Amino acid sequence: MNVNGHRAAELFGLTAEEVYLVHDELDKPLGKQALKLGGSARGHNGARSCISCLNSNAMARLRVGIGRPTHPDAVQAHVLGRFSPAEQELLPPLLERAADLLLDHICERSQGPSLGP
Question: Which among 8, 22, 19, 34 has a CA at the least distance from the CA of 109?
Fold first, then answer.
């Protein structure tokens, strides 16, 4: 059972709109990233836990692709396993891009709606 959401809600006392959830995404190739606002958990237990504990799906989510293994029985080992040496080499630029995406979004949010030209 995944209990990330309960602990996060308890520790920080934030509303869903104040939360950035970064999680792995089986249905995206390794390294592919997408920032999304709201939506369903799409089968991700950690996202489901956060949505449930915050009573909202309004948090921003950065989904980071880890790729899906070819055999369905290998999913758990793939998700919980370590990156291969070749995959580890891809991590520094991937993490830099993830940080840039999040910081850009935070800056955009902090500026609020535009007041005109």
Answer: 19
pLDDT tens profile 68-98 = 999 989 999 999 999 999 999 999 999 999 9
CATH number at residue 42: 3.40.50.1470
Domain with 31 in it: 4-111
> Cβ-count burial of 116 within 10 angstroms (0-12 exposed, 13-18 middle, 19+ buried)?
exposed
Question: Is 116 inside any structural domain?
Answer: no
DSSP conformation letters of 8-31: HHHHH---GGG-EEEEEETTS-TT
What phi and psi, each to the nearest 5 degrees, are found at residue 15? -85, 160
DSSP 107: H
Domain count, the chain: 1
